[in-house]
Amino acid sequence: MNKPRTPDQELEKRLSGRLLDVFIRAGLLLALTMLCYKIFAPFLALMLWALILAITMYPLHQHLANLIGHKQGLAATLLVLVSVVLIVVPTTVLVSSLGDSVLTVITNLRNNSLQIPAPPQGVADWPIIGKKVQAFWAQAHSDMPAVIQSMQPKIGELAKHALEIVASLGGKMLLFFFSFIIAGVIMAFGESGANTALAIFKRIVGGDRGPGFAKLSTATVRTVAAGVIGVACLQALFIGLALIIAGIPMAGILSMIVLVLGIAQLPALLVTLPVIGYIWLSGDYSTGAATGYSALLIISGSADNVLKPLMLGRGVDAPMPVILMGALGGMATTGILGMFVGATLLALGYQIFMFWVADNPDDRHEHNDAQATE
Predict the structure, then answer these.
(1) Does the predicted model carry a pTM greater than 0.70?
(2) Residues 1-23: pLDDT tens digits?
(3) If we measure between CA atoms, which residue out of 62, 155, 57 comes closest to residue 110?
(4) Helices (H), strands (E): how many in the chain?
(5) How is 32-86 classified by DSSP, letter by letter?
(6) N or C terminus: which one in the chain shows less Cβ crowding within 10 Å?
(7) Which residues contact 41 (CB under 8 A, 6 or more apart)?
C-alpha cells in the first residue's frame, strides 16, 4: 500500500517537473539558435557590411527621395548605381593594382631579380639607426639574393600569406559589390527597418532606454563609417588613382599604407611627399609631367581637409585607439571588409559600455538624497 505524499513531496515533484521542462525548452532553443547561426554565418559579413552602408547612406537616400517625389525604391536604385560607378569601380582598379604589385614583388623575390636602388648619401647620418640602415640598404643593393637567403624562412611565410590575400581579393570585391545592392534594399524599406530595430532595442534594454540605445547605435555607425573609415578610404582611393595615373610602382601597396595612416589620423603626406621626391629625382619624368603629378598628389593628399567637415559632422566620441584597434583587428580577422565592421562594432561597443557606466542608478539615488537633504 502506497503511503500518501506529504505537501513537501508534492511541491518537490512539481518543482522538479517544471525545472526539467525549463531545461528541455532551453536546450531546444539553444539548438535552434546554433542551427540558425550556422546557416546564417556565411552571410554574416555581407549583411553587416550592407547594414553599415545602409545606415551611413540613409540620410543621403532620404534627401534624394524627397527630390524625386518620395520614391524610396527609385532613390535607393539611383544611389546604388552612383555608388558602384564612383566607389566600386575605382576600388576594383586599385585592388587589382595592389594584387599586381604583390605578385610582382613575390615573382622578383623568387627569381632573384628584385632591384633595390643604392642608398642616398645622407642615410648614414641619420641619428641612432643611420649606419645600420645604410649597411643593410647597401647590401640589399649589391647582393639582394644573399639578403633574401639570410631572411628565410620569414620571407617564405610572408610570401605565402601575401599570395593567400591576393587569391581572396576577387571574392572580397564581389562581396563589396553585393553589399551595395543589399544596402539599397535595406534603404528602400528604411522606415520599417528602423521601427524593427527600435522594437529590438526596447525588448533588449527596456522601453525607456531602447530609443536612446537605437539612436546611439545609428549615430556611432554613421560617425565611424563616414567620418573616420569613409574619409580614410576616399583619400586612399584618390591617392591610389593619382599614383596609378603617375605610373608610380607599387601604387596599390602605397594606397593601403595611406588607408592605415588615415584610420590612425596621421597625414597622407607621409606617403605623398616621398613619392613626389621620387618623381623629381628618378629622372623618368619631364618637368611639366613632374609638376602636374606633384600637384595632383598634393591635392589628393589634402582631400581629408575637405572631406572631414562634410562627412564627420561632429567629433568622434570613441577614442582613436579604439577605432584603430577595431579596424586593424577586423582586417586581420576577416580581411579588408573586416576593417569596416571591426572599427564600427568596437566603437559601438565602447559607446554602449560608457553609456551604461554613466547611467549608474546609485549615482542618481545619491543625487536625489542630496537634493532632499538640501
Answers:
(1) no
(2) 455 667 666 777 777 778 888 88
(3) 155
(4) 17, 0
(5) HHHHHHHHHGGGHHHHHHHHHHHHHHHHHHHHHHHHTTS-HHHHHHHHHHHHIII
(6) N
(7) none
